[in-house]
Amino acid sequence: MKRLSAIAIAILTMAACGGGGTTGGPAKLRFAIIPKALDIPVFNYAKVGAEREAAKRGNIDVIWRGPENADQLRQKEILESFITQRVDGIAISCLNGDFLTDTIDRAIDAGIPVVTWDADAPRSKRISFYGVDDLAAGRTVNLQRRLDGVREALARHPGIQVVEVYDIKEDPVRCAEIIASGTNRYPDLGAWISVGGWPVFTRNALDSVPPQTKVISFDTIPPAPDLLKAGKVQVLLGQKYFGWGSESVRLLAEIKAGSRPAPIIDSGVDLVTPGNVDQYVLTWKAMEKQ
């Protein structure tokens, strides 16, 4: 086995891998949008998307609230508070779907529609999920399903050895430390594969990676395209960041109007390489200006 063909994978694994409107005019629907954490930069774009969709419809107020960091107990408390407030709908990106299942079911039983986005709670009564088919996305690169997809794809190539799997814990600083120590431990490493965007959320997380080691990572928000142009990353997989918010609002609005969406809506991914990164950046800037 050549060590040059070894591949390490950076992976986040979690510990357990109705309402009233405003007065003085037409009643507005109050939709609570709950991200995994406020300190994860990709979710800033989901907030923009949700607020844009609400403004376009004119009869919706978006309440954006999440834990300061990736704290699943705090996220559950926030979800419970919105049930108590009897908001008109809830859209949540689940830190731990199994942990939130009973609470999501309680919201549904109380007559509050719930949809999930980015990260699902598939065993719950949630009405619909919008996001990436994580198993399929893992084959082209809930995070455990992405890891399963990566393993399935790599198993077809017997010359590739996965030397280690790392728990990032949704922490870009921890990610940089792990990459540095892993690079030191495996100096002839063939590649890093990250099923989340932690290596590309900051400009220096990949400073320790030598030129001969390839990097494949989820997420395409800045500064990721610059890192790809600089040769620090070879492939990026982008998600529908604005859509996480806009589609969540759209789905809840349609549910309140009597429609029943599909239980799973696959958003697809954007495959970004040196060959198309310039066009992707132009498209991204256009989305930011909408």
Strand segment tally: 12
Largest sheet descriptor: 6 strands, mixed
Overall geometry: globular
The tally of helices reads 9
Question: What is the chain-wise order of helices and strands?
Answer: EEHEHEHEEHHEHEEHEHEEH
Instruction: Extract low-pLDDT stretches.
Output: 1-7, 9-23, 137-141
Strand order of the largest sheet: 7-1-8-9-10-12
* Proportion of residues in β-strands: 15-25%
Mean pLDDT: 88
How much helical structure, as a percent, in the residues? 25-40%
Radius of gyration: 20 Å
- What is the terminal separation in angstroms? 51 Å
* Helix-strand category: alpha/beta
List keywords for this structure.
290 residues, alpha/beta, 6-stranded mixed sheet, 6-stranded parallel sheet
Descriptive account of the structure:
With about 290 residues, the protein is of the alpha/beta class. It contains nine helices and twelve strands. A six-stranded mixed beta sheet has the order 7-1-8-9-10-12, with helices on both faces. Strand 9, helix 7 (about 225-230) and strand 10 (about 235-240) form a beta-alpha-beta unit. The longest helix is centred in the first third of the chain and has 16 residues, at about 40-55.
SSE inventory with pairings:
Elements: E1 6-11, E2 29-34, H1 42-57, E3 60-64, H2 72-85, E4 89-92, H3 97-109, E5 114-117, E6 128-131, H4 134-140, H5 144-154, E7 161-167, H6 172-185, E8 191-194, E9 214-218, H7 224-229, E10 235-238, H8 241-256, E11 264-266, E12 270-272, H9 277-289
Parallel strand pairs: 1-7, 1-8, 2-3, 2-4, 4-5, 5-6, 6-11, 8-9, 9-10
Antiparallel strand pairs: 10-12
Helix pairs in contact: 1-8, 2-3, 4-5
